[in-house]
Amino acid sequence: MSYTPLLSVRGIGKRYGAHVGCIDVSFDLWPGEVMGIVGESGSGKSTLLNCMAGHLVPDAGQVIFDTRADGPRDTVTMSEPERRMLGRTDWAFVHQHARDGLRMGVSAGGNVGERLMAVGARHYGDIRGKATDWLERVEIDPGRIDDRPSTFSGGMQQRLQIARNLVTGPRLVFMDEPTGGLDVSVQARLLDLLRGLVRDMGLSAVIVTHDLAVVRLLADQLMVMKSGRVVEAGLTDQVLDDPQHGYTQLLVSSVLQV
């Protein structure tokens, strides 16, 4: 068992002028662990996620990742090429809207193969073979390998985005509302798929969502955000079954009343 966190977030803060994105957020994520971040729209959860994933530069704090080659490194101070390579290899980012994470003008197989080529794969047969395997793994008919994502349903596009992200075997996946905008039945199928992949690949993940059912199913740890601050954190079941903060109690009770 590793005694070094895979990801250590220390004092992350981000402002947009007078508006607070997030303030002084800190936590550790261990290998194989899933962290859920919940809160209403505008609570700061997506700002925090994008600061961690390198899409935004925080005003303060560190995002320390235990790299394979050099051990713990602060990704905030990494060079852009280093961070970009990390995003192709050990990190992955699943967008809420699959179109933001796919090349819509490229075939399904091309979308998966493109990430393999970004890390040096060159043998066409091997790339196509891996793409076929991953389409099957995310429950897409491999016969559609040459079809473009624009011909796929929303749920299929999201599963294709997941295949594109996971084909290089990342150790950490950031997910921004991965089931948002999908029908309930499609959400359930996607969640079941995600849970299986996280378990089978030993993935660590940070999942931002407003849906408590998503974190109940996927997350080991849970942070609740309000107005840019973490107001409660702990084991997921503990936080949801016995919320201590008034805002968390409100979130949980609103779900129970639906």
Automatic annotation (TrEMBL):
<dbReference type="GO" id="GO:0005524">
    <property type="term" value="F:ATP binding"/>
</dbReference>
<protein>
    <submittedName>
        <fullName>Phosphonate C-P lyase system protein PhnK</fullName>
    </submittedName>
</protein>
<keyword id="KW-0547">Nucleotide-binding</keyword>
<dbReference type="GO" id="GO:0016887">
    <property type="term" value="F:ATP hydrolysis activity"/>
</dbReference>
<dbReference type="GO" id="GO:0016829">
    <property type="term" value="F:lyase activity"/>
</dbReference>
<keyword id="KW-0456">Lyase</keyword>
<dbReference type="InterPro" id="IPR012700">
    <property type="entry name" value="PhnK"/>
</dbReference>
<feature type="domain" description="ABC transporter">
    <location>
        <begin position="7"/>
        <end position="252"/>
    </location>
</feature>
<dbReference type="Pfam" id="PF00005">
    <property type="entry name" value="ABC_tran"/>
</dbReference>
<dbReference type="InterPro" id="IPR017871">
    <property type="entry name" value="ABC_transporter-like_CS"/>
</dbReference>
<dbReference type="InterPro" id="IPR003439">
    <property type="entry name" value="ABC_transporter-like_ATP-bd"/>
</dbReference>
<dbReference type="InterPro" id="IPR027417">
    <property type="entry name" value="P-loop_NTPase"/>
</dbReference>
<keyword id="KW-0067">ATP-binding</keyword>
<dbReference type="GO" id="GO:0019700">
    <property type="term" value="P:organic phosphonate catabolic process"/>
</dbReference>
<dbReference type="InterPro" id="IPR003593">
    <property type="entry name" value="AAA+_ATPase"/>
</dbReference>
